[in-house]
């Protein structure tokens, strides 16, 4: 495949057959360590500022994970929406997010589904605000515009956090080398948790991008492509702001209405 990728896999191993979000110990350690500490602090601050400014009564979080972006944002905001809907395919992560919201003064509705299924069965419900933090990258490209269209139809304002990843030609030695170098840098941030994070999360995600036999967990793209897809979905006011520098790629906050 590639010598440096082989060396990385030999060093840490990779649970390539285990879905990364269904048994989430490695993902949970990943999001709570390294450069994610600063990234999530910035993200939760920005989300909280958005709740305080727009004062939404209803909020929809698509792919909420275990609530690491949502819960601190609600805890620090002056305004808390009276109803929050969580959509998350992983039972373990959804359960963790729901438990963390037990002390927040809001009505929580939890939907254990991927966004595609959730919107396919939805009637005419509407939310004042929706957010999707690092989750829409998990919606395959062929489903993405229809999910964005559903978000436009069912919500007033959508906030997306994603990485502004440069275009690379997939499968080239340059692309694999670039992935390996950046993942090595990321894993190095985890100290005692490096093995857990690499084996159970980062390396399966990396392998999904380069090995057709490993289930792919994400399809990332440049911020400009998110803007194009949001425009295709019918959003007309789209704003892209830098969120934080990060070892993988710069993170951006995209607001669309
Ligand atoms: C990188 S995590 C981000 C979690 C959380 N939003 C956060 O910021 O910490 C990606 C999340 O998207 C969820 N996900 C995967 N496929 C999805 C889909 N089709 N629809 C909605 N969420 C999805 C995963 O289960 C996971 O919780």
Question: Main traits of this protein?
Answer:
257 residues, alpha/beta, Rossmann fold, 7-stranded mixed beta sheet, 7 strands, 45% helix, 17% strand, binds S-adenosylmethionine
Structure explained in plain terms:
It is built from 10 helices and 7 strands. It has a 7-stranded mixed sheet with strand order 3-2-1-4-5-7-6, sandwiched between helices. It is an alpha/beta fold and 257 residues long. The protein has 2 domains: 3-31 and 172-210, no CATH class; 36-166 and 217-256, Vaccinia Virus protein VP39 (Rossmann fold, 3-Layer(aba) Sandwich), CATH 3.40.50.150. Helix content is 45%, strand content 17%. Bound molecules: S-adenosylmethionine. S-adenosylmethionine (SAM) binds at residues 21, 31, 62-65, 68-69, 87-90, 93, 114-116, 133-135, 138-139.
User: For the record, what CATH class of the largest domain applies?
Assistant: Alpha Beta
Describe the main β-sheet briefly.
7 strands, mixed
What is the 3D form?
Answer: globular
The small-molecule ligands in this entry are: S-adenosylmethionine
Counting H and I runs of at least 4 residues, what is the number of helices? 10
In terms of DSSP E residues, the strand content is 15-25%
CATH topology of the largest domain: Rossmann fold
Report the helical percentage.
40-55%
Distance between termini? 43 Å
Structural class: alpha/beta
What's the β-strand tally?
7
Order of helices and strands: HHHEHEHEHEHEHHHEE
Radius of gyration over all CA atoms, rounded:
18 Å
Strand order of the largest sheet: 3-2-1-4-5-7-6
Catalogue the unreliable spans: none
Mean pLDDT score, rounded?
Answer: 95
Number of domains: 2
Q: From the 3D coordinates, which CATH architecture of the largest domain would you assign?
A: 3-Layer(aba) Sandwich
CATH superfamily of the largest domain: Vaccinia Virus protein VP39
């Amino acid at each position: 495949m590639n010598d440096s990728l082989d060396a990385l896999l030999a060093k840490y191993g990779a649970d390539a057959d285990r879905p990364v979000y269904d048994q989430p110990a490695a993902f949970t350690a990943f999001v709570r360590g390294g450069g994610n500490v600063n990234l999530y602090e910035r993200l939760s601050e920005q989300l909280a500022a958005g709740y305080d400014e727009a004062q939404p009564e209803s909020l929809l979080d698509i792919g909420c994970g275990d609530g690491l972006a949502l819960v601190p944002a609600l805890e620090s905001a002056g305004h808390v929406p009276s109803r929050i809907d969580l959509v998350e395919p992983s039972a373990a992560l959804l359960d963790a997010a729901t438990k963390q919201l037990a002390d927040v003064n809001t009505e929580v509705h939890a939907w254990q589904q991927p966004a595609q299924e959730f919107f396919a069965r939805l009637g005419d419900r509407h939310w004042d605000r929706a957010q999707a933090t690092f989750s829409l990258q998990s919606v395959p490209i062929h489903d993405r515009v229809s999910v964005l269209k559903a978000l436009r139809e069912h919500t007033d304002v959508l906030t997306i956090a994603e990485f502004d990843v440069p275009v690379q030609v997939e499968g080239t030695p340059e692309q694999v080398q670039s992935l390996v170098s950046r993942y090595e840098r990321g894993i190095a941030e985890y100290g005692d948790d490096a093995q857990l994070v690499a084996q159970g999360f980062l390396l399966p995600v990396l392998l999904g991008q380069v090995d057709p036999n490993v289930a792919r967990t994400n399809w990332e793209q440049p911020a400009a492509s998110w803007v194009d897809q949001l425009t295709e979905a019918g959003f007309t006011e789209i704003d892209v702001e830098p969120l934080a520098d990060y070892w993988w790629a710069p993170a951006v906050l995209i607001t669309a209405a």
